């Protein structure tokens, strides 16, 4: 709550601090939580694959290959687990109004847009058909959604002053 420097009462004309983020920030955080949940499922799947690789039939799969699948599966599972935890951390910090989380998401969104632009250039050079352009264009939805949601006036105010 914002207080006047000479008084212990909040000034009535000053906007009051809010306890929760605006709707647009909650929507952005929801999609990041969803990405974290899907990454966590991938980590579980790779972990199960790594653990189950030792159960492959020994007469059909050499021991070195089984050991490679087991080790690689567990390493990939660990990497995905760390990425999922980062997703959850960033989503929570967005909801708490941390500017660094907003900036990080916006940087990744801009990089996503630039990546799609590069895809368009490469598709044009390869002479791709319209279906591939449509798929590349659809991958713009996520990054543009984050850019719009985190740049609403309510979201900007939330990250700067905890008001909106």
Shape: flat
Distance between the termini: 13 Å
Query: What's the pLDDT, averaged over the residues?
Result: 88
Domain count: the total is: 2
Q: Strand fraction band?
A: under 5%
Work out the number of β strands: 0
Would you kindly provide a brief summary of this structure?
This protein is an all-alpha fold and 164 residues long. It has six helices and no strands.
Kindly describe this structure.
By secondary structure, the chain is an all-alpha fold. The protein folds into 2 domains: 22-97; 98-151. Helices cover 72% and strands 0% of the residues. It contains 6 helices and no strands. It has helices at residues 23-52, 63-95, 99-126, 130-138, 141-149, 153-161. The longest helix has 33 residues, at 63-95. The chain is flat and about 70 Å long. The mean pLDDT is 88.
Based on the model shown, name its key terms.
single chain, 164 residues, mainly alpha, 2 domains, 6 helices
Write the layout of secondary structure elements.
Blueprint: H1 23-52, H2 63-95, H3 99-126, H4 130-138, H5 141-149, H6 153-161
Helix pairs in contact: 1-2, 2-3, 3-4, 3-5
